[in-house]
Design goal:
- The protein is α/β, with parallel strands linked by helices.
- It has three domains: 117 residues, no CATH class; 118 residues; 86 residues, no CATH class.
- It is 50% helix and 10% strand.
- Strands 1-2-3-4-5 form a five-stranded mixed beta sheet, sandwiched between helices.
- The two termini are 24 Å apart.
Length: 424
């Protein structure tokens, strides 16, 4: 028992050391980095458009409520916008709208912004006026803007903001329809294949590129039709600057990739001009980023069993239990008389036996059980000593007898009969 407490102390120290060392260890499990990074580079811009001078544009705006410069692509529902202007009050009836083409150099854009006579300015499909600029926040906003150039929702929002009125709801203004079999077949005949895309490793992507669609007409939903025609094939359809995906795992990442792409690059695509191939490359790179993120349609990487990771939470409890056991054994050992432990084995046996004889005349019912157990331990120790048994065994028996005699002495009304006092 004397050595057992040190075993628990060492176990407590070992568990504490392992726990502290493990705090410096970190495990990071991730997928391979995406081989592509979504970006709309300035090198892909289509430039060259120009606008008249500020004075010329100012004269045009003062003479006409709506001025469309050459190359402009934005359109809107004129009846709804006119009704919104009239309902905004007398301060908005003289609203003047200047529409400029996308892809203007910075200096040309500054000229458009310097036309103070214009209440609303539209650069490409970017709508601004006063201190406000309107940007889409959902697919219902981006789809008509980039597929057809429809900025009706943006204009209605800006007009309400300039008039300090509640902002209108922004429903999806773009109606859709299913294409006919003949339309789908004609489109499939002109489609092209892309291989080696990081967005779809090992797959051949079917890509269809269409110009900006006319406003006010239902736009065909070619993606699902082509997906039925080519099952298991990734389908990408480009309407102007709006891109849609159909095919394998579309439900897992298509909406996320679209929201991420247009949420980040929508403002730039609205005012700058890019080739459809540049926009498509950036979109496919964003799809690769999303899919390599490991959030969709990919199993978690294999993690081998780590015993340390499993047992680490239990180490503080192991430490606490070992410390408690050590303290309990230490308290028990402190109750044993040191004078008797230092004596030789035969002398210790004789001394304890004499103490037991004297105590047998004084104990009562409270101390008799402990005294009886002590005498039994002394008898066993004397027999072990006579039979030349191991000295450690004899000492253990004497230690037990000493402890029992000490318990019996505590019940006596007299002092001086505890082993540590009697044998001093």
């Amino acid at each position: 028992m004397r050595n057992l407490r040190w075993v628990f102390l060492l176990a407590a120290a070992a568990s504490l050391i392992v726990f502290l060392i493990a705090q410096r260890q970190t495990t990071h499990v991730s997928y391979a980095e995406s081989p592509a990074t979504a970006n709309v580079p300035e090198a892909g811009e289509v430039r060259g458009a120009t606008v008249p001078t500020v004075e010329q544009m100012t004269a045009l705006v003062k003479a006409n409520p709506v001025v469309r410069l050459e190359g402009s692509v934005a359109h809107w529902d004129e009846a709804r916008v006119r009704a919104a202007i009239l309902s905004a009050g007398s301060g908005a009836t003289d609203t003047r709208i200047l529409v400029a083409p996308p892809g203007l150099p910075e200096a040309e854009q500054d000229k458009v912004r310097d036309v103070d006579a214009a209440t609303i300015r539209i650069l490409g499909t970017e709508v601004s006026g006063g201190i406000y600029q309107v940007s889409g926040t959902a697919a219902a906003d981006w789809r008509p803007q980039f597929a057809t150039g429809d900025v009706t929702a943006q204009l209605l929002t800006l007009i309400a903001g300039l008039a300090d009125q509640p902002l209108p709801s922004s429903p999806d203004l773009l109606q859709r329809r299913d294409p006919s079999p003949a339309e789908t077949a004609a489109l499939a005949a002109g489609a092209r294949r892309i291989t080696g895309s990081a967005a779809f490793p090992g797959a051949s992507v079917l890509v269809v590129t269409l110009p900006q669609q006319p406003i006010g007409k239902p736009m065909p939903r070619y993606g699902p039709a082509l997906a039925r025609l080519y099952p298991g094939t990734p389908i990408v359809v480009v309407y102007g600057d709006w891109i849609e995906y159909d095919g394998p795992s579309a439900a897992e990442f298509a909406e996320v990739a679209s929201a991420s792409f247009y949420g980040q690059f929508g403002d730039r695509l609205s005012s700058y001009a890019y080739s459809q191939q540049t926009v498509l490359n950036a979109y496919l790179a964003r799809v690769a980023d999303v899919r390599y993120a490991g959030l969709f349609d990919r199993p978690l990487p294999y993690r081998p069993f780590d015993p340390l990771r499993v047992t680490l939470p239990a180490l503080p409890w192991v430490f606490a239990v070992c410390v408690l056991i050590f303290l309990a054994l230490s308290v028990r050992s402190m109750r044993r008389p040191p004078a008797v432990r230092r004596a030789g084995t035969p002398a210790r046996l004789a001394a304890l036996s004499a103490l037991a004889v004297e105590m047998s005349l004084l104990t009562d019912r409270a101390g008799d059980p402990a005294l009886t157990r002590g005498i039994a331990a002394l008898t066993a120790a004397r027999g072990a000593l006579d039979d030349d048994l191991a000295d450690s065994h004899v000492r253990d028996l004497l230690a037990t007898a000493e402890s029992e005699l000490d318990d019996a002495a505590r019940t006596l009304p007299f002092t001086g009969f505890r082993p540590e006092d009697y044998l001093r």
